[in-house]
Amino acid sequence: MGIFVIVVVVVLAGAVLIYNSLVSLQNRVQNGWRQIDVQLKRRHDLIPNLIEAVKGAMEFERDTLERVMEARGRAVGAGTVHDVAAAETALSQSLGRLFAVMENYPALKANENVLKLQEELTTTENQLAFARQFYNDMVMQLNTREQVFPASIIATYFGFKPAEYFTAATEDQGTPRVDLSLPK
Hints:
By secondary structure, the chain is mainly alpha-helical. The chain has one domain. Helix content is 76%, strand content 0%. The chain has helices at 2-55, 62-77, 81-102, 106-110, 112-147, 151-157. Helix 1 (2-55) runs antiparallel to helix 2 and helix 1 (2-55) runs antiparallel to helix 5. 21% of the residues are buried.
């Protein structure tokens, strides 16, 4: 009888430890997502300021400016991890086009306000990359923990679900093609 009680206590203690570790990892995943969310908010807040700063000088580039703002609107309204990743990829692409077009305007390249906004966006992009990496690391830890025995039994019993990775859009996963040939 005494050994049976000890075995039951050990099994229950193990189950509690596993459950607590799953909850802890789940909270770390949620924290990682909130860190991405903070950086995305900062990014989304900087974009209208940048558009406003370049709007006057880029009068003939309305289409580019509108695409950036449309992409920003889609990114702000995205809900799931997959939707956010896709919308943010599109926003990054439209910002890249904007920065490329801005190179044609020497007055913008020398404008202190525009330079400061570009620097802030670059800093935010770097912080966002770190936040995404942290989030994906936590997702991997949680998903792995949920799938290994005996934690998989506890995870299934208590309804833990695998977390979704923050991934690049399918079109961004290939190797970029660079053409360095000189025009003829």
